[in-house]
Amino acid sequence: MKKLPLEYYKDLEEIQGIDFVLVELTLYLDTHPNDQQAMQQFNECAQYAQQLKRNFEAKFGPLQQFGNSYTDSKWSWGKSPWPWQV
Prior knowledge:
Shape: elongated
Number of strands: 0
Number of helices: 2
Order of helices and strands: HH
Helix content: 55-70%
Radius of gyration: 15 Å
Largest sheet: none
Distance between the termini: 11 Å
Structural class: mainly alpha
């Protein structure tokens, strides 16, 4: 397996962090569905997560499968390391 740049790990860690925040906000909003501030924070984090994932994919290739990420002309899915390989 080829060596990945440090930026790959930094970007992936940031994505994992914002996804964790989204999971926690989802759980909170399940029990506090009228908390407007939490909903606003969720929407802001969701938008930020999408931006991070688009930037990551532009640099390193597809991050998600099953139509959640677009492919390039080389069908690069599976050429990047799997999550347990990094």
